[in-house]
Write a structure and sequence with these properties.
four-stranded antiparallel β-sheet; 172 residues; 28% helix; alpha+beta; 9 strands; 24% strand
């Protein structure tokens, strides 16, 4: 009985040791990991390509409040933007990507984008430009949040018709 119990304990320990822990900067899931939760098994991945000259939404929706106000969940914002504003947007571009057979990309929220900026050197491939987030300005319906990578990751709002860079992300 004791030898059986010992065998089970050792077997369980060896299975726990087989669980691979990820790291920030690791190439994984179609991009590069830039955030990990406390388990090291889940987090956020940035695509490796910048998309340039992208509007937040098409011009006819520029003055309309889409209500994509979430500061921390870009997926929620992206789904809302695509549902209401359709194509010709940074969000539409992201949800239609297929990178290494991963099709769950979205436009990051302003806080996810700022977090991505904080891992700039580990992720790499950025240009010193303004990047759109999926977060709309709650006070002015014609503006959305962006992050200025050329100015130390400064968060700011800009008119939705501006053409900025987009870097898609996904959860894992």
């Amino acid at each position: 009985m004791i030898s059986c119990l010992l065998y089970l304990q050792l077997n369980c320990l060896s299975q726990v040791n087989e669980i691979k822990s990820h790291f920030v900067g690791e190439k994984f899931g179609g991009g590069i990991i830039f955030y990990l939760d406390e388990t090291g098994q889940h987090g956020l991945i940035a695509g490796t390509k910048n998309y340039l000259g992208i509007r937040w939404c098409k011009p006819k929706y520029e003055n309309k409040a889409i209500r994509a106000y979430n500061m921390t969940d870009g997926k929620e914002n992206t789904d809302l933007i695509v549902k209401i504003a359709g194509d010709m947007s940074g969000s539409h571009l992201c949800v239609n990507l297929n990178i290494d057979n991963y099709k769950d990309w979205y436009l990051p929220s302003v806080k996810e984008l700022t977090l991505l900026y904080s891992q700039l050197m580990k992720v790499g491939g950025f240009i010193m430009a303004d990047y759109w987030s999926s977060t709309e300005d709650i006070k002015k319906s014609n503006r959305a949040w962006a992050v200025r990578f050329a100015k130390a990751g400064k968060e700011f709002t800009a008119r939705k018709y501006n053409k900025f860079a987009v870097r898609p992300i996904r959860k894992f």
